[in-house]
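Case study B.
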Amino acid sequence: MITAEKITVSFILNDTPQTLSVNPLRRFSDVLREDLCLTGTKVGCDAGDCGACTILIDGKQHNACLTAIGQVGGRKVRTVEGLSKNGELTPLQQAFLDEGAAQCGICTPGMLMAAQSLLYKTSNPSEQQVLDALGGVLCRCTGYTKIVQAVLKAGQDQSSPPVPKSGNAVGTRMVKVDGRKKITGEEIFGADQAPDDSLWLRAIRSPHPRAKFTYDDPEKVLQKYPGLVKVLTADDVPGNNGFGIYPHIKDQPVLAKNHVRFRGEAVLALVGDQVSVDCVSEEDLGLSWEPLEAIRGLDGALAGNLEPVQAQFPDNTLSRGYVKKSDVEKGFSESYAVAEGIWTTSAIEHGYIEPEAGYACKVGKNLEIFVCTQTPFMDQEEVAQVLGIEPKQIRIIPSAVGGGFGGKLDISLQPLVAVAAWILDRPVRCIYTRPESLASTTKRHPVRMNAKAGCTREGKLTAFEYRGDFNTGAYASWGPTVADRVPIHCTGPYFVPNVLSQTRALFTNESPSGAFRGFGTPQAAIAHEALMDALAEKIGMDALEFRIKNALRKGDRTATGQLLENSVGQVECLESLKSRWIKWRKEAKEFNKKTANTKRGIGTGCVWYGCGNTSMSNPSTMCVGINAEGKVTLYNGAMDIGQGANTIMVQICADALGIPASQFDLVMGDTDLTADAGKTSASRQTFVSGKAAQLAGEHLRAQIIHHAEASEKATIHIEGEKLIAKDDSGEHVILLSDILPQISGDVLTGKGTFDPPTTHLDENRQGNPYATYGFGAHIAEVEVDTLLGTTKVLRLAAAHDVGKTINPTQVEGQIHGGIAQGLGLALMEEYIQKVSENLHDYLMPTVGDMPEIEVILIEDPEPLGPYGAKGIGEHALIPTAPAILGAIKHATGVSIHHVPATPDCVLATLQKAGKNG
Amino acid sequence: MLKYFRPDKLEDALVALSEYPLTLLAGGTDFYPARVGKPITEKVLDLTGIQGLRSIQQTDEGFSLGALTTWTDIIQAELPSAFDGLKKAAKTIGGIQTQNAGTLCGNICNASPAADSVPNLMALDAKVELKSMQGIRTLSLEEFILGNRKTAKKQDELVSNIFVPHPGKNAFGNFEKLGIRAYLVISIVMVGVVAELNEQDEILNLKVAVGACSPVAQRLRLLEKECVGQRLKSIEIHPKHLELLDPIDDVRASANYRNAVVPELLKRAITGVV
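Model:
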């Protein structure tokens, strides 16, 4: 019988007896991580909604977050740390590594444990068994495809990708350089590390979308809770109490002063021991709210009946975007057919499985921040102005990032822990809860768009007009970027002689909308692709043929008048899908003949998307060095957030230098150790930072050749401290230990910088906003139950022009993951404040929602890119939702004008058209 | 006073319950999600140490599902085909993690309008046994669940088991659940049905309940009555059968949608029985 406050619990943990004295109601996940330092078990929600904490208890999968430690006594527990023995990977782990089943790695321990429970029962499971076993674990990166493949392959006829030889890394399926630690639980994410004496920080956030507030003198609560060290208020911020992406719009307070503008905004921050900061209530703080009528939705923003969200923007208009090419009116007047429509989309959550986490620690006159981020150098500048100190006084040490997708481009806890650690001179850590992460961080912009397109009788596009209002929420974040990027891309990858596009980013008292994989273009693509379908139908042309006819080609000019000279693979992408398109459509037709209420259809969607910042310098610098012992290190400032930049950069640099990629060590993202490689956004890292990595490798190689007095064609080998360059005249040896080391400790270094060439855009936004574009097309097959309105995506083929595939496994992984997010956007995802602040009401695709996916890689090389490569990260997502919506139209005859196309939305549309049943 | 009590005997649990209010904990699949980011301050009675409560027993009268019976236990148990709907529901709860931990009794005590066990247990005519130091009470499931998150369980009681009377010899169960995604999904609408057929496949009796369309799942007794003697495929659903349903708009779907799909889901559940 157990009756004490703390109890003794004994159990077998990873084959070793374990006894703890512990509060029996603590979540087992928390005890594993904090008391036993087994941080391989991840926490994504604390509510059993994500499965990241899946462990085995008596061989069966359980959520550690739903298990009281008091219930574990006498049981046998296995965590990810207990899978491999003596450093030898299990067949399942090896399969995960080989197949590229781990991207960011945050869900990987949960996936591994869930899969392992199945493999204990059967060594040769069916695909359905695998789906059922993994159904309780969410992944936001991989689209699950490679995870399922890995489980099916585990222990079966497994062969690992060969380790690439010198000069041959690019183009191979080299396994991730950081892959091993992601499948053993050794990878350190934001919540996995903090100094032992860290204080905890918890922000108090607004429950109201708009309100005034007051609170009592913090001294009162400090007296009540001895473990509480500080209550931070707006007045404690030493520098500017404001942050924001744009240098001239630092509009979001670190801690609100008197007035909040969205539900989830931070007003106070409690710092102290963990129990104390968790226990303090609003009543303790004397928080008193005066709710004000909130501006909701685009109509609310435009109504003008309430005080504007921000006083400096009286009409609630943050920014406008514009593109004008020739004369749309003339274009429409000369059109044979015109199609138009209105489409609306919802707020979408990034849904990375790793909530924001990290710590700050004062080191002398400087501050170190360990945090999950997509952009260490921007964080550095941002926090510096909040503290009122020089950026160089701040060192950002990025953790491994458990998914980002744009959501970790904005700062979250960085300024809070920074202010606390700076003031208190104590390390301070913070881990967002899932509801806090959902409520307080940015979303994909909801949009209402009105678009119109015309074509000739022969099907050549004549004119395109687009107007989009984007709900940018309470603070600016990346709103101007979205308003700017969308008009440039809003025609889709088609040649249109006349274009007019106007966008607005409008403030509301809703979650700030920020950057999310595609910066508004996934929403715009829904409109342009629906218009392509509508025009094709009007002139009686096949929808794919219509797209081929109008696809951008070399020699065409874009909506901004940019002449496309290289790497325009749109036609090849479409052509590569043509045989499937014809076959699938025929099969769907046959199927539909036999069924009354289950209808299949095939749709298509296309993408083009500029890689890098819009008409703005966005350089990356990469450094590589060899030390006296012959160790080669790539100092990579291009954040790997799961997409694989670490591996891609090594592959590129290794080939440029001419040594095997396997000899590389890597430093990622640390602002003290790496050069600025810009932010991981805008599909720019492979193209921009990859080019810098290539130049850095070439630079180092040139120095080696020079030092060794060898010829340009020499091959290079490193044998301990000897560097040997071999050419026709023989071996030239450099003794590395004879060279004076630099500050980094390296004796020979290479550096490369690349800034993609763009031009200023004129008053009509004409010019060259991007140095290169990626292109692509998807076709999707859906099955719609016309009596229930449910839609299942059965299969999807994705063709993308990536210039050059640096690593097919990684590129496929990006495409699979993009498709999953596009599917979520199309069919199920909608963030509603207060209502969907958890992962069982905010629905993202599970392993059972994914279609069978086929990836086709087109390589039309980009001369500026590394070995011809360009980006893929965002391109992968953009065509999916349009393809699915087109397929629903093909299946049922009805056009969906709002996403997500939930069963409710689809059935209502069918009913309206009299087509239900 | 004690914060946490995990007895290994039911009697000890009942004594504790008689002494002061306690929050009951079993699989934790509702307990912890309700406390994300919040300190746990209440006093908790953890039932998972009471071995006797985790059992599925067949008696002369029917089947007794102990308080700690998990979804996985239901899936794996050898039960008559009348339980097929309940088994099907068990496989749609959360992921396997939830099925391994979550209990049927916890599901009915949580009394969510979208509780997947409830329409099935109603169609099985399940009864709830409540124990306290005062003795045993037996309520029908419809008497037990009073409303959204509200049950007839008194503070000093616990649900010791769910009792399902022997279904007819030729009774078959089925379950239809409508949700937005494949796993980890909460029902928009669900239907549980148990039909007993004669040798000519005519309905001897039909029990059918609809969930997530009212604060508590509803048996459709008028429909049940009118179906006797018919064949499964010939049953027609009319608005009068659905008068007790009163769905709401929520994050998962509108009331209109729920009203629109209930008849179809009923048809599928009923015709899918065999």
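Chain A touches chain B through 70 residues (CB under 8 Å). The remaining cases will be described in the next quarterly update.
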